[in-house]
Hints:
Oligomer: single chain
CATH superfamily: NADP-dependent oxidoreductase domain
CATH class: Alpha Beta
Structural class: alpha/beta
Shape: globular
Number of helices: 12
Radius of gyration: 21 Å
CATH architecture: Alpha-Beta Barrel
Largest sheet: 8 strands, parallel, barrel
Mean pLDDT: 94
Strand order of the largest sheet: 3-4-5-6-7-8-9-10
Amino acid sequence: MRYRLLGRTGLRISELFLGAMTYREATPEVRRIFDLYSEAGGNVVDTASMYGDSELVVGELLQGRRDRYVLATKYTPTRDRTDLNAAGNHRKNLVLSLERSLRRLRTDYIDLYWVHVWDRHTPIEETMRALDDAVRAGKVLHIGFSDAPAWVVSQANTLADWRGWTPFAGLQVPYSLVHRDVERELLPMARALEISVAAWGALGHGVLSGRYEAPDAAASRVSPEGISARDRAVVRVVVEVAGELGATPAQVALAWVLRGGVHPIIGVSSAEQLKDNLEATRLALPEEAVRRLESAAEFELGFPGNFVGEVDLSPDIYGDDLHLLDGR
């Protein structure tokens, strides 16, 4: 396992994050998963306040070794469906959600506290100031934003820079060979602002593992009958490339995400699955294979990305000597 820095901070984070969303009990198998992940060098465990008893399980499993992990959790979703103020990104919900997560996780600080989803009803200034207060109180070390438009994250970090508040160091988005929308705005923004990116759904809800290609495949997170022709075309190429490289389809799909500097969040139900996923960190995809994978399904960058890309090469815009410029 190799490591990268979280955003513009000095915090070291492993290539693969361990997603704890589905864990409801600290079973022997879940304990094996945590131990294997740790032995492989993994150090980021990602959960959330809305994931049932996941925080309780993570808190139990990290006892005696908590400080060796980068512990990440999230807030926004409701703590009480009958109370409007029990949900959202406003200060009241942040404070109460954070205290609840600290108790459940059996810790006095969170390494990476995610805003779970953009709340358009709360001014971003309130959210950023409340998060900064949590950092200054020592209850949170770093902050991140999950599932938000690029312009909101940009506005938030600009405000933070101007006012001396803590900026977002991480961005969490859905990203895989079958869901590449974030390449239009969110990934370019993250690169420009030096924000680390974590990807949920890196296997397309299991579709890219190839598990649904068998004629008798049973439904799990998705129904085999509901997989589109477009997605099946991608899976076929993933399976072909995996066969050529002596790898599994899941390893190929994760390696593709990793090569872009993005951290896949791997949610596994068995130690064997985890062993398979960990091998993705050792898999180097040839450029020819990458081209085949990315051309397997139509993807349009769309405006303004495609338009600006064309303009960047136009002497009608920048003059006849544009080819002499060594730009960014």
